[in-house]
Amino acid sequence: MTLLKSQVAEKIPWSGVLISVQPRIRLSRSFDQRNHSYLGYTLRVRGRIGSEARDSLLGVGEGAHAKHHFRVGNTASGDALPLADPRLETVEFYKISNLKVSVHEVDEETQPPPWRGAPPPLPVYRQRGHRRLAARTYQDKCTSCMWGCKMAVEMIIDQWNPSARRYRTETFCYGPRSCPLYQSGPARKVPGRHGMSYTEEDWVDDGATSHRSFDEYYSQGTTEIPRHPGPDFVEV
Ligand code: SF4
């Protein structure tokens, strides 16, 4: 198939300072079942996108992060495509090319929380597990923390009719269970067939994170993160 020139999306140049680096993860829900797709990392960039001066959200892959170790304070530039389906991601732009990243230019480390170091590899997030995080808390206190994540959520309403889907966003925390900024917010409900709904109770979060001690190493104020998951981690 030959595309007309007007049908080909053009990449947009961007540049600025990274004010947040968080995991880029999509959550799929089907009533009480859930699955995660680990897409890479989300860069929140304060600078220019095309001709506009504003903050923008850009998606990068795991390989780019392994190479550049993105962190708050870096300056970066490149070209990016607008997202094809905004329901499936919380970033606005992706498929970045001509990526250039400067060295870290933050003079003073601020004491966490929030944690603003270079985020760990994605298997570390999977191994740690998450708790729900109140949307307001995320917005007010956690957008710059590497343990915070705003996920695009795709919900299959009827497993016998998988084409019936709905979309929304949810916020989560992968950070220390002792973080003083943490607020869970209300339990989340997942719509199902025939008007039913499933409420995700607190025990789900406990089950996902109780393998970590309450006062784990990360709560001591360090941003030093192991580059590899623990020996009991199994890639699936
Ligand atoms: S609540 Fe979670 S995401 Fe927010 S600052 Fe604490 S560890 Fe980071």
Overview features:
binds iron/sulfur cluster; 236 residues; 4 helices; 10 strands; single chain; two-stranded antiparallel sheet; 8-stranded mixed sheet
Task: Please describe what this structure looks like.
Strands 1, 2, 3, 4, 5, 6, 7 and 8 form an eight-stranded mixed β-sheet that branches. The protein has a two-stranded antiparallel ribbon with strand order 9-10. The model is unreliable at 219-236 (pLDDT under 50). The two termini are 36 Å apart. The longest helix has 8 residues, at 135-142. It has helices spanning 62-68, 122-128, 135-142, 202-209, and strands at 12-30, 33-49, 52-60, 75-82, 93-101, 131-132, 148-156, 165-173, 188-191, 197-200. Helix content is 13%, strand content 38%. It is globular, with a radius of gyration of 19 Å. The protein is mainly beta and 236 residues long. It has one domain (12-104, 112-230). It has four helices and ten strands; from the N terminus they run E-E-E-H-E-E-H-E-H-E-E-E-E-H. Iron/sulfur cluster is lined by residues 113-115, 141-142, 145, 147-148, 173, 175-176, 179, 181-182.
